[in-house]
């Protein structure tokens, strides 16, 4: 374990939401400290981290002090400005690396990257104005989805185009932001693979999970996913291909559509992923510990699944059901958010449904 962090050393985490919170908890079990950097005060991660800096992404003094106080930096939030990362990287390594972040920040770069790797994606075209949207629709047809290239999440920044007559309204929804048109993929269901790669290049993937979304937000992940043995192998191999091509260190989420002609990659997330939360109760080593191990330069752990699991997200008012859920056989994970707004992820519940099949 050359260059591996030792207990007592510190991992810096950019972003202070629930993913950062669960990373900090995992790090603490390994005797590592976390220092969270987030512009918002009192978020889910700061509460459980050894240190927290609340400062803007362009606060150079705060960024420098943060970078000097930690031994490696990782992130749970993809939209940290490039200038902030430049400043940090001059002082301390960032894992996963900048290319992984850049590729997944922009849906067009992401699609180009996947296509160049030989992986199947939805047909796509870049859209900047009405003329390029017309040309894209001409080529791709309908139904299609127009998405902002950057900053979209939980189905935000997307508009469906069922017929050419929807085009103008969809374009207006982009608010002038650069966009990408994607052909609608006829999928039977959606799955994801959570993969990890260590500093030495070793790769380990968790079993694929099957994801059900509601209103663009992940509602439930079930393992095992409905996949043939060949599809399962494909899913893991393509995740490994992405990790290796990016010289990635850490955990990565790959969202996939299952279609009659095979797996189609929807998007990748350069971080721990909501659809991997089942690993907390279905595996000896979960995605959060796996990510911490990787960025700390430790060997990856054994992520073999010991149980079948259903993970349910608690969104908005769902959290009011906690007293009732607490009386059932379920592992409860709450993020400590005070206010339950509509569409806000408040926590999740893992239910074991039997020994691993
Ligand atoms: N090209 C597509 N074809 C069919 N469904 C899609 C397509 N793109 C997105 N979707 C649906 O919308 C959901 C959210 O889109 P996604 O690109 O994953 O954005 P987000 O960043 O919000 O997760 C997907 O999980 C899928 O259900
Ligand atoms: Mg998605």
TrEMBL record:
<keyword id="KW-0547">Nucleotide-binding</keyword>
<keyword id="KW-0658">Purine biosynthesis</keyword>
<dbReference type="GO" id="GO:0005524">
    <property type="term" value="F:ATP binding"/>
</dbReference>
<feature type="domain" description="ATP-grasp">
    <location>
        <begin position="111"/>
        <end position="296"/>
    </location>
</feature>
<keyword id="KW-0436">Ligase</keyword>
<dbReference type="InterPro" id="IPR040686">
    <property type="entry name" value="PurK_C"/>
</dbReference>
<feature type="binding site">
    <location>
        <begin position="266"/>
        <end position="267"/>
    </location>
    <ligand>
        <name>ATP</name>
    </ligand>
</feature>
<comment type="function">
    <text>Catalyzes the ATP-dependent conversion of 5-aminoimidazole ribonucleotide (AIR) and HCO(3)(-) to N5-carboxyaminoimidazole ribonucleotide (N5-CAIR).</text>
</comment>
<dbReference type="InterPro" id="IPR054350">
    <property type="entry name" value="PurT/PurK_preATP-grasp"/>
</dbReference>
<feature type="binding site">
    <location>
        <position position="107"/>
    </location>
    <ligand>
        <name>ATP</name>
    </ligand>
</feature>
<comment type="similarity">
    <text>Belongs to the PurK/PurT family.</text>
</comment>
<feature type="binding site">
    <location>
        <position position="190"/>
    </location>
    <ligand>
        <name>ATP</name>
    </ligand>
</feature>
<dbReference type="GO" id="GO:0034028">
    <property type="term" value="F:5-(carboxyamino)imidazole ribonucleotide synthase activity"/>
</dbReference>
<feature type="binding site">
    <location>
        <position position="213"/>
    </location>
    <ligand>
        <name>ATP</name>
    </ligand>
</feature>
<dbReference type="GO" id="GO:0046872">
    <property type="term" value="F:metal ion binding"/>
</dbReference>
<comment type="pathway">
    <text>Purine metabolism; IMP biosynthesis via de novo pathway; 5-amino-1-(5-phospho-D-ribosyl)imidazole-4-carboxylate from 5-amino-1-(5-phospho-D-ribosyl)imidazole (N5-CAIR route): step 1/2.</text>
</comment>
<feature type="binding site">
    <location>
        <position position="147"/>
    </location>
    <ligand>
        <name>ATP</name>
    </ligand>
</feature>
<keyword id="KW-0067">ATP-binding</keyword>
<protein>
    <recommendedName>
        <fullName>N5-carboxyaminoimidazole ribonucleotide synthase</fullName>
        <ecNumber>6.3.4.18</ecNumber>
    </recommendedName>
</protein>
<feature type="binding site">
    <location>
        <begin position="152"/>
        <end position="158"/>
    </location>
    <ligand>
        <name>ATP</name>
    </ligand>
</feature>
<dbReference type="Pfam" id="PF17769">
    <property type="entry name" value="PurK_C"/>
</dbReference>
<dbReference type="GO" id="GO:0004638">
    <property type="term" value="F:phosphoribosylaminoimidazole carboxylase activity"/>
</dbReference>
<dbReference type="InterPro" id="IPR003135">
    <property type="entry name" value="ATP-grasp_carboxylate-amine"/>
</dbReference>
<dbReference type="Pfam" id="PF22660">
    <property type="entry name" value="RS_preATP-grasp-like"/>
</dbReference>
<dbReference type="InterPro" id="IPR011761">
    <property type="entry name" value="ATP-grasp"/>
</dbReference>
<dbReference type="InterPro" id="IPR011054">
    <property type="entry name" value="Rudment_hybrid_motif"/>
</dbReference>
<feature type="binding site">
    <location>
        <begin position="182"/>
        <end position="185"/>
    </location>
    <ligand>
        <name>ATP</name>
    </ligand>
</feature>
<dbReference type="GO" id="GO:0005829">
    <property type="term" value="C:cytosol"/>
</dbReference>
<dbReference type="InterPro" id="IPR016185">
    <property type="entry name" value="PreATP-grasp_dom_sf"/>
</dbReference>
<comment type="function">
    <text>Catalyzes the ATP-dependent conversion of 5-aminoimidazole ribonucleotide (AIR) and HCO(3)- to N5-carboxyaminoimidazole ribonucleotide (N5-CAIR).</text>
</comment>
<dbReference type="InterPro" id="IPR013815">
    <property type="entry name" value="ATP_grasp_subdomain_1"/>
</dbReference>
<dbReference type="InterPro" id="IPR005875">
    <property type="entry name" value="PurK"/>
</dbReference>
<dbReference type="Pfam" id="PF02222">
    <property type="entry name" value="ATP-grasp"/>
</dbReference>
<dbReference type="GO" id="GO:0006189">
    <property type="term" value="P:'de novo' IMP biosynthetic process"/>
</dbReference>
<comment type="subunit">
    <text>Homodimer.</text>
</comment>
